[in-house]
Amino acid sequence: MPLTPERITGLFQIRYPIIQAGMIWASGWRLAAAVSNAGGLGLIGSGSMYPHILEEHVKKCKLATNKPFGVNVPLIYPNVEEHIQTILKEKVPVVFTSAGNPKTWTPILKDAGIKVVHVVSSSKFALKAEAAGCDAVVAEGFEAGGHNGREETTTFVLVPAVSDAVKIPVIAAGGIATGRQMKAAMVLGASGVQIGTRFVASEEASSHDNFKNAVIQSNEGDTVLSLKQLTPVRLIKNAFYERVNAAETSGATIEELKNILGRGRAKKGMFEGDLNEGELEIGQVSCLLKEILPAEQIIKQIWEEFEGC
Fold first, then answer.
1. Structural contact between residues 17 and 39, judged by C-beta atoms closer than 8 angstroms
2. Which of 81, 103, 205, 225 has the fewest CB atoms within 10 Å, i.e. the most exposed one?
3. Does residue 226 surpass a pLDDT of 90?
4. b/e per residue, 232-250, with b = 16+ CB within 10 A?
5. Can you give the CATH number for the domain in which 119 is found?
């Protein structure tokens, strides 16, 4: 199968078909600008930002790079309307949406000349995103960190299924951190990749050093998809996870699980560095990572390995 990276590099006007995921508490303007300056597409993660904070990050990113960058907007989060208004006002060129109906905002963003991509976990949702007018979709497999699809479809199954279902470009995500994995995803039909976990363990990521070090020290089996009764999320096993697991095993109600989760749990773990009581969202591929590197070096390594395969 011929590889088609130009469908993504042409769409976003970037050098490499590598997108840095817009992860909460990790993807601020420094990381997004560094990735864009290195030839990929950097995304600011708005899910953990108040509207005035997002505006600040967008403005700083525009000063730090003259290359295209974007904003990731989880549609289930509060302040979505305010985030969209900031994006329109600041003329952000690219928006990635997730966890919601793409029909709600895609036409408004497209009317403003913005490229829109929606993250999906199934072919059914990919077709809905295409029908809504999205320019591309991210097919995110079960291996991914953070909030995940309930279907638990792996990337190697999801990417070819979505690629066969839609005509718009497909970006593969979930369990991708190396050039070899990128090549495999593109052989399966993707035109580019979205990478999260590898960029969490970068110098420019805004996540806490404790969390970054926990990521590069993790081994196979150290992450698990949890909280499936609420919103499924892949976590590093720690004391908080063990309490959640015990509650789920004993048949806890949704309300009981919400009480255990509380508020600010992800911030406590990923931004403040509490490795015991925080929610540590990361992907399975963390077990392959051994060092924290500058974003530019990460992209260089991935691309050189991709070309060498």
1. no
2. 81
3. no
4. bbbbbebebbeebeebbee
5. 3.20.20.70
pLDDT at 150: 77
For 54, the domain range is 6-206+288-308
Please say whether the beta carbons of 283 and 197 come within 8 A. Answer: yes
DSSP strand pairing (233-236 vs 146-147): antiparallel
Count of domains forming the chain: 2
Q: Is 278 found in the same domain as 171?
A: no
pLDDT higher than threshold 70 for residue 1: no
- Phi, then psi, of 306 in degrees rounded to 5: -60, -50
Q: What pLDDT band is residue 208 in, cutting at 50, 70 and 90?
A: very high
Q: What is the pLDDT of residues 4-35, one digit of tens each?
A: 999 999 999 999 999 999 999 999 999 999 99
**Torsion sign over Cα 155, 159, 160, 162:** positive
Q: Is 78 within the bounds of a domain? A: yes
Q: What's at 128, amino acid-wise?
A: K
Q: What percent of the chain has pLDDT over 90?
A: 83
Q: What is the tens place of the pLDDT at every residue in 185-196?
A: 999 999 999 999
Are 69 and 159 in the same domain?
yes
Show the DSSP H helices in the chain as ranges.
Answer: 6-12, 29-37, 51-64, 80-89, 106-111, 123-131, 155-165, 179-187, 197-200, 209-216, 239-249, 254-261, 265-266, 295-308
- pTM, whole model, 2 decimals? 0.95
The answer to whether position 18 is within a domain reads yes
Same domain, 72 and 85: yes
- Answer yes or no: is pLDDT of 172 > 70: yes
Q: How far is residue 50's CA from residue 84's CA, in Å, rounded to a whole number?
A: 12
Q: Does residue 64 sit in the same domain as residue 80?
A: yes
Helix (H) or strand (E) holding 103, with range, is none
Residues 224 and 264 in one domain: yes
Query: Are residues 146 and 15 part of one domain?
Result: yes
- Cα separation, 161 vs 28, whole angstroms: 32
What local confidence, expressed as pLDDT, does residue 240 receive? Answer: 93
